Amino acid sequence: MSHYMQKYHKTILSVYEQVMQEEQAIGKAAALMTSAILDDKLIHVFGPGGHSNMGAYEMFWRAGGLVPINAILDPGTAVQYGAKRSNHIERLHGYTKAVFDAYRISDGVIIIVNAYGINSMTIDAALEAKKRSVPSIGIGSTTFGKNVPEGHPARHPSNKNLYELVDVFVDCHMPYGDAVVDFEGVEQKVGPTSTLANCFTINLVVVETVRQLVEKGYDPPLWMSANIPGGDESNRKYEEKYGFRIKHLL
Known about the structure:
250 residues; Rossmann fold
């Protein structure tokens, strides 16, 4: 195994170890999600930015994942409609309100997952959640937010960071710059960390939510893989219950 592969491996493991130290924040985030499930409310998940969308995908219709997940999959930042277009949209101040209206975000809890935590859609999502009195969980990197200067084009006009605005923030500890492996004579590093950091953090919150539900004597609503025997049958009851409440389920 090359030195470069080893460096990437060690860095990812280091990120995971740092996230594991966020036990208190993870517990608080899980408590919000547990409360929403017990109240028969939805957990909305929003990844406002190109690859941040994968955070919403990771929680949605997932083997071993929670059922009442309303993934906000707005095409504005979906890279298949244009990578540079996605970049423009995530910087478009005011766009998020229309997305929230389209998904009828009015109760439950919302998870805003963006490792960078600075773009206009991300900050507007946190602000819009407050306006609608929807509890918010942020997943992102304080290291990144603290190192991007005010006035940078990627920033929201307020220059705020996600971690400053949400009700509960869980640090995913993505290193500044995202990519972490450098080669001599190559200016740009390779080996991005943001998606792995986001998804690991999200799944820890899910695991802790299930633990809290079980502790309260509640049978957690979980999807079974549709690719194994019994999967379709197990999932059908949830499809019938949530099919007309979760926008992208059916």
